[in-house]
Amino acid sequence: MSVEMFKDKRVLGVLAVCIVLLVLVWLWPIDDLVRLISVSAIIAFGLVFCLVFCKSGGQVGASTEPTDTPAPDDSKEKRTEMYIPEVKDPSAFLSELPIETIEGIGHTYGEELRNAGIVTVQDLLVADVAQIVGICDVPDAQAERWIAMGRFAWIDGISEEDAEAIVFATGIMTLNELSEADPDDVLSKILKAVEDGTVRVPEGYEFTIEMVRRWIDEVKGIIL
């Protein structure tokens, strides 16, 4: 046994209870044999507790989980979305792209949107931020990003994978912003985002300066 154990409040509490019980047993008008048995039992209990306490490293009665570990949050678990890779045909019609192809809309949000009649990326484009927020209970900024990605994916030369990179890596949300962007700056931010994992792409998928310039030129041709 260690002297340190007597600094623990649990040990002191048990010893205090044992002492009180010993005093009561000693003073109580009972048969000597019963008194002897009771005293022995109390002392034995105290000794066993102290021995177990020492061997367990002070964890007697403690939970097997760390005390600072928060209880599982079902609502957070519910909102964990899986990564949905891009469809193999970048030129697919928006009406052919399931809503889950937009980054951040996984199984849970996808089901909520489908139940509300928003099934494809094309459906997303005719919805507004308030509607998406009301359906999925997400912040306005998240709903805006989903719609922005759908908006960029509407451009023939921009796949939904490209749209994700534009929105998450550069913060560009509108066609006007993209049309005025510097291609080198856009590419630099996208490559950095891919490197640090902010933007995820299928294996072998590459972004080039020529690709970025095509995006910008196509958008300029649309808005002019």
Keywords:
mainly alpha, single chain, 224 residues
In short:
The chain is mainly α. 58% of the residues lie in helices and 0% in strands.
Lay out the secondary structure.
Elements: H1 9-27, H2 32-55, H3 74-78, H4 107-115, H5 121-125, H6 129-136, H7 140-153, H8 160-170, H9 175-179, H10 183-196, H11 209-223
Helix pairs in contact: 1-2, 6-7, 7-8, 8-10, 10-11
Characterize the structure shown.
- With 224 residues, the chain is mostly helical.
- The chain has two domains: 3-55; 80-223, no CATH class.
- The protein has eleven helices and no strands.
- It has helices at 9-27, 32-55, 74-78, 107-115, 121-125, 129-136, 140-153, 160-170, 175-179, 183-196, 209-223.
- Helix 1 (9-27) packs antiparallel against helix 2, helix 6 packs across helix 7 (140-153) and helix 10 (183-196) packs across helix 11.
Compute the CA-based radius of gyration: 33 Å
Q: Using DSSP, what is the number of strands? A: 0
Helix vs. strand class: mainly alpha
Mean pLDDT: 77
Note the quaternary state here.
single chain
What's the main sheet like? none
Beta-strand share of residues: under 5%
Which stretches are low in confidence, meaning pLDDT under 50 for 5 or more residues running? Answer: 57-92
Helix content: 55-70%
Number of helices: 11
Order of helices and strands: HHHHHHHHHHH
